[in-house]
Specification:
heterodimer, A: 253 residues, alpha+beta, Ubiquitin-like (UB roll), Fumarate Reductase Iron-sulfur Protein, Chain B, domain 2, 2 domains, five-stranded mixed β-sheet, 8 helices, 35% helix, 14% strand, B: 232 residues, mainly alpha, two-stranded antiparallel sheet, 2 strands, globular
């Protein structure tokens, strides 16, 4: 298979740290193969910057297999770039044309402060999970996996919600910087399974309270989150979150 | 968990928007239904009787207080939520993400503001002369007597107001705003109160789009009917 190479311009947000103001800087990257991943293209840019004695562009990444949720980047006006149901690390350069200028921005939300360049602090998600994204289990011998009957549809919906990798693309895409697609995936995942039943009410109340404390916005059901989610988490989970919240807050002491 | 906490959380604020929104949707049905009496082709007798009932009977008058409270809450909460949501992203994007959502779902505050401007004009045209006519400098409506009962001739007032083509155009444009506001608001309100089941969701979306077309169309046809003398 023949591979094409291309020359591109990348317009990247550069910011030294959380306290300094940032600005866009445009770089030329030459000889990029269309078979490269997007992050490999950034690796080449960084090698060039290091060779020239400059400061490499900071960006988050880990598994580069589309399953860990570490990579981010708001590419040409869409979180994780132009492809559907895809993470930035799985985006390949064949998505772009020779001579194109690619605009790369960090996730923008007050709750995701910039650490450096394209790296943002997403620990707000960790604190939301800590507030209720757990279940109680008895210690001792492991229970037989088949001893708890679970309806097929509920199991499927719970697994679909559990696909969320917590990357934060939903917050980045939302005009309100709302984290409700993320939260609704976590709440749905556990509310649909019998293991999640003991803390079902306190979970949704505590997690919503923590989400509000972190400063995320309110959902207005535009659907931008669902459209950009690399794991195709359905917005119907947000409706389920609302139902869980309404029920729990009405019946709480 | 207090009721204050319940309705001031990020989910709770949406619940206030959704409950008041659904209440206003129900009001639109009543309003459109009563106004449809203009097409009874009886010179406005049925319409004026209906308007008289709404203005003189205690039940609709009490509901009217609820209606004003609902509208007020929907407007105030809507603006507060919009400003609050906007404040959550201090630095915006260079390239905006427009493909993932419909323009009207992102423009509810602007469409709502257009509706508020219309509402002020609409209340000035019909509600104040009907309810407060004669107080201070507020215009009084013509009256007529039928079987010993004094009726406001609100029908004649409609005929008069809708002789002005600019007013007719503003009313029709407001119906356009209403259509797009409802196209998003109807199904969004039901999602917010927790309707997540696939079959209900598909049904509510379809009903929502139908409602967003039929109700504003019925309202738009009213000034047009008077202006083009389809009703006399």
């Amino acid at each position: 298979m023949s591979q094409n190479t291309m020359n591109l311009k990348v317009k990247v947000w550069r910011q030294k740290n959380a306290k300094t103001a940032g600005a866009f800087v445009t770089y030329d990257v030459a000889g990029i193969s269309d078979e490269m991943s997007f992050l490999e293209m950034l690796d080449i840019l960084n090698e060039k910057l290091i060779t020239e004695g400059g400061d490499p562009v900071a960006f988050d990444h880990d598994c580069r297999e589309g399953i860990c949720g570490m990579c981010s980047l708001y590419i040409n006006g869409k979180p994780h770039g132009p492809w559907q149901a895809n993470t930035t690390c799985q985006l390949h350069m064949r998505a772009f044309k020779d001579g194109e200028t690619i605009v790369i921005e960090p996730w923008r939300a007050n709750s995701f402060p910039i650490v450096k360049d394209l790296t943002v602090d997403r620990s707000a998600f960790d604190r939301i999970i800590q507030a209720g994204g757990y279940i109680s289990v008895n210690t001792g011998n492991a229970v037989d996996g088949n001893s708890l009957p679970i309806e097929k549809q509920n199991a499927d919906d719970a697994f679909a919600a559990a696909m969320c990798i917590g990357c934060g693309a939903c917050v980045a895409a939302c005009k309100n910087s709302s984290a409700m697609l993320f939260l609704s995936a976590k709440v749905s995942h556990l509310a649909l399974l019998p293991q999640g039943a003991p803390e079902r009410k306190s979970r949704v109340l505590n997690m919503v309270a923590q989400m509000d404390k972190e400063g995320f916005g309110s959902c207005t059901n535009t659907g931008a989150c669902e459209a950009t989610c690399p794991k195709e988490i359905s917005i119907s989970n947000i409706a389920r979150l609302n139902k869980e919240y309404l029920g729990a807050s009405l019946s709480a002491e | 968990m207090t009721f204050k906490q319940m309705f001031t959380s990020s989910v709770g604020k949406k619940l206030v928007m959704a409950f008041t929104g659904i209440f206003l949707i129900l009001f639109l049905v009543v309003h459109a239904g009563l106004n449809a009496c203009i097409w009874a082709m009886d010179g406005g007798i049925m319409f004026n009787k209906a308007a008289h009932f709404m203005g003189s009977f205690v039940v609709p008058r009490v509901l009217e207080i609820g209606l004003f409270l609902g509208i007020f809450l929907h407007i105030v909460q809507g603006y507060m939520l919009t400003l609050e949501n906007k404040s959550k992203r201090k630095i915006g994007y260079e390239v905006n993400y427009a493909k993932g959502s419909k323009w009207y779902s992102r423009s509810m505050a602007i469409l709502g503001t257009l509706l508020l401007m219309f509402l002020i004009m609409h209340i000035y045209h019909f509600w104040t002369p009907s309810r407060l006519g004669g107080i201070g400098g507020i215009k009084n409506l013509d009256t007529f007597n039928l079987n010993g009962v004094e009726y406001h001739n609100l029908y004649a007032e409609m005929q008069f107001i809708f002789t002005n083509p600019i007013v007719v155009l503003l009313y029709v444009l407001a119906c356009g705003s209403l259509a797009y506001h409802l196209a998003h608001g109807f199904q969004s309100a039901f999602k917010t109160i927790g309707v997540h089941n696939r079959r209900y969701h598909a049904m509510i979306s379809t009903i929502g789009y139908g409602f967003a077309i039929i109700i504003p169309l019925a309202f738009a046809m009213m000034p047009i009917s008077f202006y083009l003398h389809w009703v006399n």
